[in-house]
Write a structure and sequence with these properties.
Helix content is 8%, strand content 33%. The chain has one helix and four strands, in the order H-E-E-E-E. The termini are far apart.
Amino acid sequence: MKHLKSDRFANKNGSLTKDDFATIKVGMPYLDLLNTVGIPDEIYVSGLLGYGEAPSFTYRLSDSQTVQIHFDSRQTIKDIKSKEVATTPASSTYTAQ
């Protein structure tokens, strides 16, 4: 995971589209993912560092959706999920009567 601090990978969050993930497949090593779509917007690591940690990356897309990529303990992609971020109204007004 030390590669995530490297300047060699682009930060494309907010400008990525689903098409950018078309070649991302289960079983792909995380370095191949970083070379393709850059560093993730968010990183979550479960397990003890150095003892089979299983990271999850979240990428923010240009259309307000996210792609979550989960890795196994060998740091290869275990699954890929995309979801739409729920938007809430900017303001709501309540009038007491």
